[in-house]
């Protein structure tokens, strides 16, 4: 069947909205790190050059941002199911 499943399409849109909302709740530095890494597919070295920061700082920002996103999305997605 070439037609996308409406239920799956609706779920995907809800998930995308939840991710955008969670990204909006990150600090600007954390949000930039996530966007550069996962949306622009930049390496940590490229990000370090862009931010003019040591690679360890970039790794920490990514770690902290992923941890925060995980918590935000867990609460959001658990609430929607409940």
Query: Which regions are unreliable across 5 or more consecutive residues at pLDDT < 50?
Result: none
Number of helices: 4
Tell me the overall shape: elongated
Rg, nearest Å: 16 Å
Strand content: under 5%
What is the N-to-C succession of helices and strands? HHHH
Question: What structural class do helix, strand and pairing data support?
Answer: mainly alpha
Mean pLDDT: 90
Summarize the main sheet: none
List the helices and strands and how they pair.
Layout: H1 6-24, H2 28-39, H3 44-51, H4 55-81
Helix pairs in contact: 1-4, 2-4, 3-4
Salient structural properties:
4 helices, mainly alpha, 80% helix, 82 residues
Structure, explained:
With 82 residues, the protein is mainly alpha-helical. It is built from four helices and no strands. Helix 1 (6-24) crosses helix 4 (55-81), helix 2 crosses helix 4 (55-81) and helix 3 packs across helix 4 (55-81). It is elongated, with a radius of gyration of 16 Å. 11% of the residues are buried.
In short:
By secondary structure, the chain is mostly helical. It has helices spanning 6-24, 28-39, 44-51, 55-81.
């Amino acid at each position: 069947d070439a037609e996308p499943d409406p239920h799956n399409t609706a779920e995907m849109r809800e998930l995308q909205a939840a991710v955008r909302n969670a990204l909006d709740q990150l600090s600007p530095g954390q949000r930039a790190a996530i966007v550069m890494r996962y949306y622009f597919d930049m390496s940590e070295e490229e990000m370090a050059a862009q931010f003019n920061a040591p690679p360890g700082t970039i790794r920490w920002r990514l770690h902290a941002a992923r941890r925060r996103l995980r918590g935000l999305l867990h609460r959001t997605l658990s609430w929607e199911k409940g």
